[in-house]
Amino acid sequence: MTARFFKRQQFQSHQSKRILLIEDNDVNRILLDDYLNYYGYDVRSLSEASSFFSTIEQFQPKLILLDLKLPDIDGYTLLEKMQNKPDYVNIPVIVVSALAFKADQQRALDLGACRYFVKPVNLIDLIQAIEEELALNSK
């Protein structure tokens, strides 16, 4: 059994979980979408935030992966707006951003993000974080 196969088997417990991915960089979005699908997640991807709330309403994600630098609305604004919507406050948000300063990380966490990853992200660490957040929120 290869190490890659073992790692994939390790993360099969939440394969029916829905993840909303907001990433404006086409290559990053496609690669992350493919990677999450490989691990059995149901992924909906957006390249901009304009349909963010309507997509949440229709897709009902169990977790959100959010880039902070988007072409139309920044991720901080989305986090702020989520805090004002009681139905969305409990959806875990993991930020995946190129913004590496501690102040950026702290601001996102203060606005409700549960975790913060700086690009380039270690994908196994990201899957582990997703699994942990989904497990916490399924109780």
UniProtKB/TrEMBL annotation:
Residue ranges annotated for the Response regulatory domain, each copy included: 18-134
Keywords, comma-separated and alphabetical: Phosphoprotein
Superkingdom: Bacteria
GO terms classed as biological process: phosphorelay signal transduction system
A Pfam short name: Response_reg
List of residues that carry 4-aspartylphosphate: D67
Name recorded for this polypeptide: Response regulator
Species annotation: Hassallia byssoidea VB512170
